[in-house]
Write a structure and sequence with these properties.
- This protein is about 35% helix and about 20% strand.
- The chain is an alpha/beta fold.
- The chain has one domain: TIM Barrel.
- Helix 1 links the parallel strand 1 and strand 2.
């Protein structure tokens, strides 16, 4: 697949969400973080409130940092994301995670498996024949503006080399300084938050990053 750089919305309140959604409106696809306040320390807007802020013509990717994600399946079905990432760490057993994946898939929702930096990358290998999308966190989830963890490169490379037809995404601390290495190590989708949204001109920063990858023919 073609490499994708997708802006990310991380927001703890309604005003921040609407502001970021507006300044990132140049992108046809946006990645949205949802936090339940249990899986992570902080809590985001509810999915019901998030759904009211979205535009029907735009495409969305959704990252659930939450326990018991089945409880959100109906509202997520209304949001109709292109993919929804669910954390492997939110489950005690593979069987319970498999049941959750099946429930989402029965609602025609594309499911991806997300994994935290401190979880062995081999734990998601089990799901390679059940889902196509994987999200490798390059920071500890739950807070914006963290430093990128360099061990992410090796994790991306290991997953992509073992399962070359999977779609590998990376989220957390992604910016102009590491995006080329991520692409070269096999990342297909790179979600970028504050490195774009905190800039005076988010569109210009986004275009600069895209141009970097285009010049190296890795985009």
């Amino acid at each position: 697949m073609n490499k994708q750089i997708i802006p990310n919305i991380f927001a703890l309140d309604d005003l921040t969400f609407k502001r970021k959604h507006k300044i990132l409106s140049f992108s046809d696809i946006l990645h949205i973080d949802f936090m339940d306040g249990k899986f992570t320390k902080d809590k985001s807007l509810t999915l019901d409130k998030i759904s009211l802020c979205l535009q029907r013509k735009k495409k969305y990717h959704l990252h659930l940092m939450a326990y018991n994600p089945i409880q959100y399946v109906d509202v997520i079905s209304k949001i109709n994301p292109k993919v929804v990432y669910i954390h492997i760490e939110a489950f005690l057993t593979n069987r319970s995670f498999e049941r959750t994946i099946k429930v989402f898939q029965e609602k025609n929702i594309e499911v991806g498996v997300a994994i935290n930096p401190n979880t062995d990358i081999r734990e998601i290998f089990y799901y390679a024949n059940k889902v196509k999308h994987f999200l490798i966190m390059s920071v500890v989830p739950g807070m914006e503006g963290q430093l990128f963890l360099d061990e992410t490169y090796e994790r991306v490379q290991e997953l992509k080399s073992r399962f070359p037809f999977s779609v590998v995404a990376v989220d957390g601390g992604v910016n102009a300084n590491n995006i080329l290495n991520l692409s070269q190590n096999g990342a297909d989708i790179m979600y970028i938050g504050s490195a774009i949204s905190s800039k005076p001109n988010p569109l210009k920063e986004y275009e600069n990053i895209v141009n970097q990858l285009e010049k190296t023919k890795t985009f």
